[in-house]
Amino acid sequence: MPARTSPELRIRHGLRLLPDRDGPACVGLWARDGVMERPFAPGSWPQRLLGRDSVAGCMRGSPDLIDPHDFPDVPVHRTAAPETTVVEMSAAGRLVSPYRMRYVPVVTVRDGRFAPCRDYWNPLALGRTGADAVRSAR
Questions:
Q1: What is the pLDDT along the chain (138 residues), one digit of tens a residue?
Q2: Count of domains forming the chain
Q3: Which CB contacts under 8 angstroms, 24+ apart, belong to 81-88?
Q4: For position 89, which CATH number holds?
Q5: Cα–Cα distance for residue pair 89/75, rounded to 1 Å
Q6: What is the residue-wise DSSP string for 79-101?
Q7: In which domain, by residue range, is 126 found?
Q8: Do 7 and 84 meet the contact criterion of CB atoms below 8 Å apart?
Q9: Do residues 36 and 56 touch, judged by C-beta distance below 8 A?
Q10: How high is the pLDDT of residue 138?
Q11: Within-domain flag for 2
Q12: Rounded CA gap, 106 and 120, in Å?
């Protein structure tokens, strides 16, 4: 995907990669020094992932635990900062058992790569089994 692609198209492209289980392509969307923040991560879960390698490490075990099938509702909101986009999305898939959850990531795209991203979601909504499975994959 060209570096000059709009943040919205880049985000939608990334969401298409998840059901395809293309982890390397997903990680390739991140800047080398990109940061993912998860302000509501519970307990010992990392609230801040520093750099592409850290994001890759977090994603590495997820294909065996999280199987997103679809992102049926993805409103994208532009901000006054052209590089920063707010996304509301819902995901549907399977996490040890079926799940449906709402997310609100705030994504900044610089030079065609995800840089800062603050991901608002509630991992406790996965239930104890799902949350324990994701926690053990880290």
A1: 666 788 999 999 999 998 988 889 999 999 999 999 988 877 777 889 999 999 998 888 677 677 889 999 999 999 999 999 999 999 898 876 666 778 899 999 999 898 888 888 877 776 655 555 455 444
A2: 1
A3: 81/108, 82/7, 83/7, 83/108, 83/109, 83/110, 83/115, 84/7, 84/108, 85/7, 85/8, 85/11, 85/109, 87/11
A4: 3.10.450.50
A5: 7
A6: -SSTTEEEE-EEEEEEESEEEEE
A7: 7-137
A8: yes
A9: no
A10: 47
A11: no
A12: 8
Say which residue the tokens 């990680």 belong to.
Answer: 27
CA angle 82, 113, 134 (to 5 degrees): 110
Place of tokens 């996490």: 95
Pairing of strands 30-37, 113-120: parallel
pTM (2 d.p.): 0.70
Residue 10: is it exposed, middle or buried by C-beta count within 10 angstroms (0-12/13-18/19+)?
buried
Closest to 56 (Cα-Cα) out of 40, 38, 86, 34 = 34
Measure the CA–CA gap between 64 and 61, rounded to whole angstroms. 6
Q: Compute the residue count for the chain.
A: 138
Q: Residue 126 is encoded by which pair of tokens?
A: 């996965």
